[in-house]
Amino acid sequence: MNSDTLKSIKIENSALVVWDVQNMLVNNIFNKAEFTERLRALIEHARRINLPIFFTKITPLPERFESNARKIAFKGGFSNPSKDGFELFFSPSESEIVISKHTASIFIGTPFELMLNNAGIKNILLTGIATEIGVESSARDALNRGFMPIIISDCVSSGDREAHERSLKNMDKLMPITDSNELIKATK
Q1: What does the buried/exposed string (b/e) look like for 3-28 if buried means 16 or more CB atoms within 10 Å of the residue's CB?
Q2: Cβ neighbours around 96 below 10 Å, total
Q3: I want to staple 156 with a disulfide (CB 3.0 to 4.6 A). Which of 15, 116, 131, 152 is the partner?
Q4: What's the whole-model pTM score?
Q5: What is the mean pLDDT of residues 23-29?
Q6: What is the CATH code of the structural domain delimited by 3-186?
């Protein structure tokens, strides 16, 4: 994404999404040190410029009510991790929103879209884990709903490096992709 395009994005119409950065996932990504350092810096910058921040959390449904499709896709679901595994790696502040969700899209079964519309937010800066699952699903959903998803390439990751890289290439055909340094420079 060129810097002129990035500068044209109005920060007052934007929000940062920190997708599923939970201990069980952070501990299994291929670039943990770099990812957590870059994302921490971006979250701190977002706080300084008063950018709304939404954290998402995988929140399993009770076993009987979990979809068979999700159990198959996620090899049995998320019933095995310890309670600590579900905890967020970064601590949200009191003004930041934590969205518990049950699917790989921030829009399904949550009030996220309503909140964005109520606040006049059109640009969604997407970060988190896993690039090829929830980040890409939410980005495509955002695009289909008339929002501008912007992928922060060094603040997304996965346990599968090839899938992560393939997903970034796919999304690059549809939506803006930038890195945290460029975003921070453009929004100072």
Answers
A1: eeebeebeeeebbbbbbbbbbbbbee
A2: 17
A3: 131
A4: 0.91
A5: 94
A6: 3.40.50.850
- CA end-to-end span of the chain: 17
List, for residues 96-123, the tens digit of each pLDDT value: 999 999 899 999 999 999 999 999 999 9
Look at residue 9 and tell me whether its pLDDT is greater than 90: no
pLDDT value at position 188? Answer: 81
